[in-house]
Amino acid sequence: MPASTLKIATFNINGIRSRVGALCHWLAREAPDIVCLQELKTADESFPAREIRDAGYGAIWHGQKSWNGVAILARGEEPVEVRRGLPGDPDDSHSRYLEAAVSGLLIACLYLPNGNPQPGPKFDYKLAWFERLIAHAQELFGSGHPVVLAGDYNVVPTDQDIYNPRSWRKDALLQPESRDAYARLLAQGWTDALRQRHPDAPVYTFWDYFRQHWQTNSGLRIDHILLSAELAPRLRDAGVDRWVRGEDHPSDHAPAWVVLGPAARRKRAG
Asked: Are 17 and 41 in contact (CB under 8 A)?
């Protein structure tokens, strides 16, 4: 890949301690420049920083024992932490949000709550967290900085993003409130890179472990990479590393990624 391009990926690893070998294999094979990880399921002190450093990546992370957890990796450099935790609720103890400056971009890694079962307090928390994200994303978008919002959003935006919505209608991922929140986020001006690049094709990032869903390609698209107005014109490609889901002892997600071209040169005055 030319040095002037950037490959940015998001991957719900579903337990980094048990899958660090698979993670490093993917990093070696696909060589993304920036990676957002979700669902680390480990405390900060147990994060496999040495293995990731040996793979050629700097990292920052926001862990939580047994649950949640997010990290940002950068190939050949150290991400500079900007924010730890989503603003708007000082009592929220979940490790679900991390921001860093990497390669001239602001990278926001997020793990939006699942929300099941719904209705109930978990769904209420999901929607409240989503509103906080929308408010913060508006500030980021309005800043004029080149921003990437990447992660597991736990939202199937439309029926086009699921193999068959019939048996999922009661799931929190497909509720009208969840979809409306995602639509309002996009309405700020963000570009959904995977859908922009593949407007008509079925694109999935998640296949659960039940009912042979991987074997029958019965997937969902819930991992999204959103680009700010400054970055959208630089979108060159986007896709999913599906092969990762077919490996031994896989996460139920596969990495989604985008490739950004070089920034346009500023014209000299005069």
From this structure: yes
C-alpha gyration radius of the chain: 18
Decide yes or no: CATH 3.60.10.10 for domain 6-260: yes
Where in the chain are the domains?
6-260
Catalytic pick among 57, 97, 111, 153: 111
Q: How far is CA 69 from the centre of its chain?
A: 12
> Active-site residue among 94, 136, 224, 253?
253
Distance CA 46, CA 181 (A): 34
Which one of 57, 62, 152, 153 is the catalytic residue? 152
Residue 152 annotated in active site: yes
| Residue list, annotated binding site for Mg(2+) | 12, 39, 152, 154, 252-253
The C-alpha atoms of residue 60 and residue 73 are separated, in whole angstroms, by 7
Contact indicator for 33, 7 with CB cutoff of 8 Å: yes
* Binding annotation: 12, 39, 152, 154, 252-253
pLDDT tens-digit series, residues 173-215: 999 999 999 999 999 999 999 999 999 999 999 999 998 999 9
Residue type present at position 232: A
**Is the pTM of the predicted complex or chain greater than 0.90?**
yes
Establish whether 241 is a catalytic residue.
no
The pLDDT tens digits of the residues spanning 1-32 come to 555 899 999 999 999 999 999 999 999 999 99
Q: Exposed, middle or buried, 48 (CB in 10 Å: 0-12/13-18/19+)?
A: buried
Q: Phi and psi at residue 149, in whole multiples of 5°?
A: -105, 105
